[in-house]
Write a structure and sequence with these properties.
GMP Synthetase, Chain A, domain 3, nine-stranded mixed beta sheet
Length: about 500
């Protein structure tokens, strides 16, 4: 890859009077945003941040966080946004894992001991809106192959990995999506995913590349409020977000203004897509990964009920193929530099140059992808393979099921059996759920047990916490077995 022009500076030069940021407390044009990022970069240099340095951010998902991410990239530093759901001890663990000694956060006095040895910078002292600082030190031609971000994976099936992306990865990811969706400078994309998720960073860079506006939210502001308050034309949602929006509803004129609602981050039930289309939402399913810098495939936005339910075709600058066993393999200009372990970066590509995603899939005659499940989620029950995602899709197709995760639990006769955690607004009992699933699944795939979605996991973030639910399932299964043994003891 060759060097690339700074996307923000290009937009600030070409479309300087167009809106770059919409927020409840501020509206910023591209020319002003470009200057503000440069001024903030100057404060970061004054604070001791240098090119090549890894700098973590632990802050709300707002315009200030986006400004700091871009200011760090502008001086050649490497931003690493961290989940604000993490307790401070987990933050320290992630800092140590990527050999990062600088943190931008509002740090409480009680957290100082845990962060001993870490330089903590208050974000309020770094954002400069006076625009008095010049751009003399700024470089607007960026090394496309140099590290430009570190994003931790969700860790659903193990320890989260620290994925290192280059500026070129973000550039070509944005370029491919923008060509597919025809994103224009007159459009506005809602930052509905956090910047610590690769999908959130993807929204930021798509807006910069197209000169489109980025609508950001404040803490506590709902998606309904944001979609109502701003001239949003595009948004990215996980299935749970879409379900809750359909429940809440938004004004008809706001739905009419939407040009594309991208749904991803996990399996998307066909029934959910059709429900959204009936409500007038131009939805499309997508498939992506942190390693491939967000989206890999995407469908076309449509309001037609019964239209495609697949994850679409491969986007430009990506390649995809299926291995002999159906596992999805990918490569391309959006593939990451590798995983950070300490100060080092290790590339995960195999000898063939393709990366095995761990997902199973199918391709139809037109090249559209249907993702069928995770390789490491499959388990065997009585000699039969069970893919939890198939059961989850059947559950999510039932009216009133908001969330569903299926995990295996030990069984004396069959080795393992499926247990389901569900959020059901209709409060059905197990017999009613089994009866509803009988028309969709063979008997051996119907869960033996159904449990309500744990209240402590009601707000879990981008993806359902499968590992936490698997642990809870083991506990529940143990309690049930113990209860059964106790009931079988003879009376004395």
């Amino acid at each position: 890859m060759a060097d690339l022009q700074c996307m923000l500076h290009q937009a600030g030069t070409i479309a300087r009077d167009r809106p770059a940021i919409y927020a409840p407390d501020i509206r910023i044009g591209y020319g002003e945003f470009d200057l503000m990022v440069s001024a903030t970069a100057a404060w970061l240099r004054t604070s001791g941040v240098n090119a090549g340095q890894r700098v973590a951010l632990y802050m709300e998902n707002n315009w200030a966080a986006a400004t700091l991410v871009l200011a760090l990239i502008r001086i050649g530093a490497v931003p690493a946004p961290l989940s604000t759901r993490l307790p401070v001890k987990a933050v320290r663990q992630q800092l140590d894992r990527i050999d990062c000694r600088t943190l931008i956060a509002r740090v409480r006095e009680s957290s100082r001991k845990v962060l001993d040895g870490i330089t903590c910078l208050d974000p309020d002292g770094l954002i400069d809106r006076t625009l008095t600082t010049g751009q003399a030190q700024d470089c607007f031609v960026l090394d496309s192959a140099a590290p430009a971000s570190i994003v931790f994976t969700s860790g659903q099936s193990g320890t989260p990995k620290a994925v290192v992306h280059s500026y070129g990865n973000h550039y070509y990811s944005a370029l491919g999506v923008n060509r597919h969706l025809r994103l224009r400078s007159s459009d506005c994309w809602l930052l509905s995913l956090p910047l610590y998720h690769v999908g959130g960073l993807g929204i930021l860079f798509r807006c910069l590349h197209a000169g489109a506006a980025l609508a950001t939210m404040t803490h506590g502001q709902s998606l309904v409020d944001a979609l109502t308050a701003y001239p949003v034309t595009h948004c990215s949602l996980v299935p749970t977000q879409l379900r809750r929006l359909l429940e809440a509803g938004i004004p008809t004129e706001k739905r009419t203004a939407l040009r594309a609602v991208v749904v991803g981050g996990g399996p998307v039930a066909p029934a959910l897509l059709d429900e959204a289309r009936r409500a007038g939402w131009p939805v499309l399913a997508s498939y992506g990964s942190t390693e491939m810098t967000s989206q890999i495939t995407a469908g076309q936005p449509t309001k037609a009920v019964g239209a495609h339910h697949h994850a679409g075709r491969v986007l430009p600058y990506r390649e995809l193929r299926l291995a002999a066993d159906g596992e999805i393999e990918v490569r391309g200009a959006t593939f990451c530099l590798g995983y950070a372990t300490g100060a080092a970066v290790h590339a995960p590509l195999g000898p063939t140059g393709w990366w095995a995603t761990g997902d199973y899939g199918r391709l139809d005659a037109q090249g559209n992808l249907q993702v069928t499940g995770r390789k490491d989620h499959m388990f065997c029950s009585g000699g039969e393979n069970i893919q939890p995602e198939e059961i989850e899709a059947a559950l999510l197709a039932l009216p009133g099921i908001m969330q569903a995760v299926v995990v295996p639990v030990p069984h004396a006769d069959y080795g393992q059996r499926p247990m389901a955690f569900i959020e059901d607004t209709q409060q059905r009992d197990a017999s009613a759920l089994r009866a509803a699933l009988t028309t969709q699944l063979p008997a051996f795939k119907i869960p033996d047990q159904f449990h309500a979605w744990p209240t402590q996991l009601a707000s879990h973030g981008i993806k359902p916490p499968r590992s936490a639910l698997a642990q809870q399932a083991q506990t529940l299964a143990g309690n049930i077995q113990q209860s059964t043994r106790n009931s079988q003891r003879p009376c004395r």
